[in-house]
Amino acid sequence: MIGLIIGLMIAIPIIWSYKLLKEPDFQLNIDELSIEDIDEMNGYEFENILKPLFETQGYKANITKGSGDYGADLVLSKNGERTVVQAKCYKSNIGVTAVQQIVAAIKYYNADDAIVVSNQFFTKQAKRLASINNVKLIDRVEIQELILKYNREVKRRSSI
């Protein structure tokens, strides 16, 4: 019995801290978010910023569990279609591995579409593989456009 209590005393804080790490309560004002801010984020923070960006575009967005996500960081739903998203917040350009991961996720999540989103740019090889597999790539420039769309939508909603 004492062993069980000690085990719970150790396990509960670990589980709780993982949950906080995986799903932080963002109070970040996206109005003030810059691409440089994104460059400083870790992968979990980046995923949590992408969620509201997609939601303002009419998607229902769910973040997948950290490990064992089978190549998808977010699963989006809209108009009865499912889209899997691979999020890559890196310091260098994104290669074919990210595209390979999301292609595998399409079947696992029974998705209709796939997107790889990055704060960087994609290599020629990644672009070629994405094109062959009908994977949409959202790069550094398009992330900035998504942030602007988000800000306009939030301002529009708050003025109603």
Strands, helices and their partners?
Layout (H helix, E strand, L loop, with lengths): L1 H21 L12 H5 L3 H13 L4 E4 L10 E5 L2 E8 L7 H13 L4 E6 L5 H9 L2 E4 L1 H20 L1
Parallel strand pairs: 3-4, 4-5
Antiparallel strand pairs: 1-2, 2-3
GO biological process, one term: DNA restriction-modification system
GO molecular function: DNA binding; restriction endodeoxyribonuclease activity
Organism: Evansella cellulosilytica (strain ATCC 21833 / DSM 2522 / FERM P-1141 / JCM 9156 / N-4) (Bacillus cellulosilyticus)
What can you see in these coordinates?
The chain is of the alpha/beta class and about 160 residues long. The protein has one domain: Trna Endonuclease, Chain: A, domain 1, CATH 3.40.1350. The chain contains six helices and five strands, in the order αααβββαβαβα. Strands 1-2-3-4-5 form a five-stranded mixed beta sheet, with helices on both faces. Helix 4 links the parallel strand 3 and strand 4. Helix 4 runs parallel beside helix 5. The longest helix has 21 residues. The chain is globular and about 40 Å long. The relative contact order is 0.12. It holds the Pfam family Mrr_cat. InterPro entries: Restrct_endonuc-II-like, Restrct_endonuc_IV_Mrr, tRNA_endonuc-like_dom_sf, Type_IV_Methyl-Rstrct_Enzyme.
